[in-house]
């Protein structure tokens, strides 16, 4: 998804890249941000965003299928960033369907693979990019989707590679931040 949905000109791609000797298999989120406004739609006053999220899980005979990440303290992501200001978005089965819980994806080593952990309690509830008050705790037993967006409105190319997304209780060691753990819940 991008501002093209409302007439903007940002480009978004999400491609699968198979494993090589140099890199793990990963999703490549890339494209170009444009802040140009559409000439034929005066209602659009802001552009310059792109993002993706996982597909909804298929329904079961019991209804909607959601993730329960309540037993876990952290969201883990294995990423290779270009250094831009990405956000992680979590959508839950809440009363307001357009609410998202967001957190900045702090990549410390642009151009290198790294593991980023985000405490589930540090996400902030937003609606259309604006912080919602009063804040409510995320419904961690009813997670619909997890995604990443770029909303910095800086024109130009972007590139973020994501090899893993998982829920965990473990902090990785600096030297061994690829460590597998049987307690992890992979997506």
In short:
The chain is mainly β and 187 residues long. It is built from no helices and twelve strands. 0% of the residues lie in helices and 41% in strands.
Report the helical percentage.
under 10%
Quaternary form? single chain
State the end-to-end CA separation.
20 Å
Poorly predicted sequence stretches spanning 5 or more consecutive residues? 174-183
- Count of helical regions: 0
Beta-strand percentage? 35-45%
Class of secondary structure makeup: mainly beta
Please state the average pLDDT score.
88
Spell the H/E element sequence: EEEEEEEEEEEE
Q: How large is the radius of gyration?
A: 17 Å
- Profile the largest sheet: 6 strands, antiparallel
Shape: globular
Provide an overview of this structure:
Mean pLDDT is 88; it is low at 174-183. The protein starts with 10 loop residues before the first strand and ends with a strand. The chain is 0% helix and 41% strand. With 187 residues, it is an all-beta fold. Strand 5 (86-92) and strand 6 form a beta hairpin.
List the main descriptive attributes of the protein structure presented here:
six-stranded antiparallel sheet, mainly beta, 187 residues, 41% strand
Structural topology:
Blueprint: E1 11-17, E2 26-33, E3 50-53, E4 74-81, E5 86-92, E6 99-105, E7 113-119, E8 124-127, E9 130-131, E10 143-150, E11 156-168, E12 185-186
Antiparallel strand pairs: 1-2, 2-11, 3-10, 4-7, 4-11, 5-6, 5-10, 6-8, 8-9, 11-12
């Amino acid at each position: 998804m991008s501002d093209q949905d409302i007439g903007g000109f940002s480009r978004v791609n999400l491609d699968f890249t198979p494993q090589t000797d140099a890199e793990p298999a990963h999703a490549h989120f890339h494209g170009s941000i444009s802040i140009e406004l559409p000439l034929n739609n005066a209602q659009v006053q802001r552009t310059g965003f792109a993002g993706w999220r996982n597909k909804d899980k298929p329904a079961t005979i019991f209804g909607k299928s959601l993730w329960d990440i309540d037993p876990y303290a952290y969201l883990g992501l294995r990423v290779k960033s270009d250094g831009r200001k990405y956000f992680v978005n979590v959508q839950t089965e809440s009363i307001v369907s357009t609410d998202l819980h967001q957190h900045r994806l702090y990549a410390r080593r642009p151009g290198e693979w790294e593991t980023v952990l985000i405490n589930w309690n540090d996400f902030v509830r937003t609606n259309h990019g604006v912080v919602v008050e009063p804040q409510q705790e995320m419904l961690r037993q009813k997670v619909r989707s997890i995604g990443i967006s770029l909303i910095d409105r800086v024109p130009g190319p972007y590139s973020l590679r994501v090899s893993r997304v998982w829920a965990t209780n473990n902090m990785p060691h600096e030297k061994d931040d690829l460590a597998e753990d049987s307690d992890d819940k992979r997506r």
